[in-house]
Amino acid sequence: MNISFMEIMVICIVALVVLGPDKLPTYAHKLGVGLKEFKKVTSDLTNDIKENMVEPLNEAAKPLKEAVEPITEIQKDVKESLTDVTKSINNIGKE
User: Fold this and answer.
1) What is the C-alpha separation between 33 and 27, in angstroms, rounded?
2) Contact 29, 37 (CB under 8 A)
3) Is the per-residue pLDDT at 1 higher than 80?
4) Spatial CB neighbours of 24, under 8 Å, sequence gap ≥ 6
5) How far is CA 91 from the centre of its chain?
6) Which of 14, 70, 74, 90, by CA, is between 20 and 30 Å from 36?
7) How confident is the model at residue 30 (pLDDT cuts 50, 70, 90)?
8) According to the 3-state scheme, what is the secondary structure of the chain?
């Protein structure tokens, strides 16, 4: 969400008119404290999700990656062999 400078100015002017100059600093402070608390809660939630979901999934994926690795090596060897055979077949009539 991108808020331009003009939008911020309009919000400040409306807040000044609605709340008045006496209450505006109090509510601005409360808003700042609320945003700080919101940021802390979202940070904690992000860390919880990372610890409880992402890291266990990465741990569970390690054995699968290790199991797939030999198959990947075999696939690479087969492709290289197939390339060599194709080159040999293509060069039969040329020599």
Assistant:
1) 10
2) no
3) no
4) 15, 16
5) 50
6) 14
7) very high
8) CCCCHHHHHHHHHHHHHHHHHHHHHHHHHHHHHHHHHHHHHHHHHHHHHHHHHHHHHHHHHHHHHHHHHHHHHHHHHHHHHHHHHHHHHHCCCCC
Gap between the Cα atoms of 57 and 40, Å rounded: 25
The alpha-carbon radius of gyration of the chain (Å, integer) is 31
Segment 8-36 shows an average pLDDT of: 89
pLDDT above 70 covers a percentage of the chain that reads 98
Nearest to 15 by CA among 28, 1, 30, 34: 28
Which residues 6+ apart lie within 8 Å of 19 measured at CB?
A: 27
What is the model's pTM?
Answer: 0.48
